[in-house]
Amino acid sequence: MIPDVHTPENRKALFLRACRSEPVERVPVWIMRQAGRYLPEYRALRQKHAFLEVCKTPELAAEVSLQPFHIVGVDAVIVFSDILIPIEAMGMGLELTDSGPALADPVRDSAHVAALRDFDPEQETGFVAEAIRQLSRAVGPDVPVIGFAGAPWTLACYLVEGRARDAFPTAKRMMFQEPALFRTLLEKLARTTARYLKAQIAAGATAVQLFDTWAGELSERDYEAFALPTTQRLIAELDPGGVPVILYTKASGHLLREVAQAGADVLSVDWRVDLAEARQRLGNRVALQGNVDPCVLLGPEEGIRQAAREAIEKTGGLGHILNLGHGILPSTPVEAARAFVRAGKTTSLPARVPLGQAG
Question: How does pLDDT run across 66-83, given as a tens digit for each residue?
């Protein structure tokens, strides 16, 4: 039976069951970058406040985080922030705009790595935890609030390169020429990020998502040698105590087996990964999130509904959180985002064969 989308329900319980691959009446749905430039309300607020100001002002961050919940109807609220916020707290000069990050003095040698400082998340980045506390109070006990951070490899790419760049050649040069130094950097980032996420969990986050956006830039061998061990160490040190960890990777179909070993409860994949194949290869040991191409939301509504239905059908709706395969595009019509969410909420789950009765 499809629930009435206007009927109050415990979305947190629904979300947590999906993260644990437990039976659900429907898939939960939210959208990466759901608070952002496609929303007129966000653009209006940004005319008055700079990006970093919004991130560092809990009242503004909470207001922006809640916009897609009220306007689009998503099932989860993710705190408005940026993966490079802890990098600034480590002592890096940082400029953040809607067009991307820029670091004034990238990490290029052992002195730079040694200079990256540990920090107290409540003291240096307490505005993130406070925004989560405010969101938790605002949405109440029945709506999940998601915290997040960058994974060590992706953070290292920005730290060494200084900005987003195709293939991240400077970061890879350090990785290949000075592997011990690069591992030291990754390990420092893992420890720092674990503490940062622990503060978000303590503030009330229902789940946390690790963004390893640039994992797909690595071969299987290099992912296993560098990125995977520090991601595993981060999740182990995080010790979330029942709070699900979601790991997002982009363009990582060739790494599916390795990524599944990181220790996350949920793997979030982009549109290049076939969800049915992922489910067949991984079974139900991890849940899946995704993975509709964000560009689908630039097309007709029927195509949006079909893409959402197909994603759900490929997983059977078990252990699946419907989402896009990357962040929503700024040019996306708001009604297209609503159509995607409606499709997720109203798609009937495929009938399942009871355990022990499979042919």
Answer: 999 999 999 999 999 999
